Amino acid sequence: MTVRLATMGMSGCSGCHIALLDTGVALLDLLKDVELVYSYPIVDVKNPIPDNIDVALVEGSVRTDHDQEMAKEMRRKAKFLIAFGSCSAFGGVNGLANTFDSQAGVKYVYYETRSMGEQRQVPSEHVPTILPENLRLSDVVKVDFIIPGCPPFPDEIAKVLGALLAGETPSLSTKSVCDECPLEQLTAAPTQLRRIYEIPEPNKCLLSQGFICMGPATRAGCKAECPSRGIPCTGCRGPAETVWDQGVAMLDALAALEEKELAEFKLPRITSTFAKYTYASSELDKIRKRVKQK
Amino acid sequence: MNPSKASSTPKRKRKSKPKAKAASTPDKLRIVSFCCHYCSYGAADLAGSSKMPYPLNVEIIRVPCSGRVDPLHVLHALENGADGVMVTGCLKDQCHFVTGNLHAEKRMMKLQKWLETIGLGGRLEFQLMSAGMAKRWVETTKSFYDRIKELGPNPLRKGGK
Ligand code: SF4
Ligand code: SF4
Ligand code: SF4
Questions:
Q1: With contacts defined as CB-CB under 8 Å, which chain B residues touch A292?
Q2: What's the burial of A119, exposed, middle or buried (CB within 10 Å: 0-12/13-18/19+)?
């Protein structure tokens, strides 16, 4: 029996779809049992979404009324809906837009950017309306599974799809990036804040050296791709299983830094570092939305 | 696991609601105060036994150390309608756990900034005091209470007032 697979893109960068294509040989194996019935970013057909979809991969966050409708329609037609990538699962980098007023954003884009030329107006036709908030997929419809990552790892995509084809329940790693990290973990807490352009000591934990590495708060599964190359983890795979809120967890970890160093580490840098991919699903944003409603 | 949530931590069980002790105060404002076992709790205790009055609105939660207070605790208190949250610890260099109070201070300072961005600015207070500083406790609670009174009730409070 062939499995009817659909993939769809909402407000994202299509990077997740590139990662899907990047599964390479594994994709060819999968395609023996899979019929790709709908794939809007890969095949240039948007409507209609076919019926009877078995598995749907949905990339991107819900930013416009069009996204919202598409997400609902996909939910009606798909048996197993996967939030594909961090935009869809947590709101993604787009979620940082929630720190601004959405109308101010629209105004900036259509009236203030230089590239707009002469036509300074918000188009009223052929473009969907922006929602007041950037939402993750699960804010709009029920989601059966998430594949985190910005973009997700091809190996993991293949593993999850493989498990589904075999009739098994897919699973994600429950560990944190640190658990997979090959760097030597030091017990010393960082005292000094260091910036990304500085050169780290090789083979030593980056966080202990003062680089802000989100490893401790981030879900494993990427084999610590970034720290093992000397680049601090930015937390693209969202909160680890035992972490309630990635940003707040990192705020905790920062406490050991010297006050003088912390003084330089201010908003909005804190938000965009600690909640880079998860602001739209963070505790902070949840409260902000509720305060705004009142 | 529940993959539809951002974090798939199992849902916390809600305990039955604690009785609204401070609801008996005339203005119904509620201030949650995390006090460390070794110092600020002692200060509050001393204030009580010396019959020094401080606002009834302050509800104390004793913690082993101010460093134990996770920013999430503060967020959850505010989310559930606390009008103000105080975190109090020992004086500098007097922390029973050496650096707990300093860590708490740094976290809370940053959290205060975060709260300002989401419309709850001014509702978090951090203070250091020794177990003998009952007067400081009274002054701190009074001035924080005044500030909360000025800010008005937390917009997230149930019933909206
Ligand atoms: S999760 Fe990352 S790669 Fe995927 S759509 Fe969003 S920004 Fe692009
Ligand atoms: S470098 Fe980052 S991921 Fe590796 S052990 Fe240190 S904090 Fe964890
Ligand atoms: S190390 Fe961190 S930023 Fe890099 S891929 Fe893994 S989770 Fe993403």
A1: 119
A2: exposed
Instruction: Give the gap in angstroms from C-alpha A118 to the nearest C-alpha of chain B.
Output: 35
Residue pair A247/A282 in contact (Cβ under 8 Å)? The answer is: yes
Taken in order of first residue, the domains within chain A and their CATH numbers are 3-95+126-165 (3.40.50.700), 177-293 (no CATH)
Hey, of A80, A175, A251, A285, which one would you mutate to test binding to chain B, going by the most B CBs within 10 A of its CB?
A: A251
Pick from A252, A255, A291: CB nearest B119: A291
What's the structural domain count of chain B?
A: 1
Composition of chain B by helix, strand, coil, percent to 5: 40, 15, 45
Residues B110, A264: contact at Cβ < 8 Å?
A: no
pTM of the model: 0.87
Cα four-point dihedral sign A197, A198, A204, A210: negative
Per residue in B53-110, pLDDT (tens digit) is: 999 999 999 999 999 999 999 999 999 999 999 999 999 999 999 999 999 999 999 9
Higher pLDDT: B2 or B68? It is B68
pLDDT tens, A28-64? 988 899 999 999 888 887 778 999 999 999 999 999 9
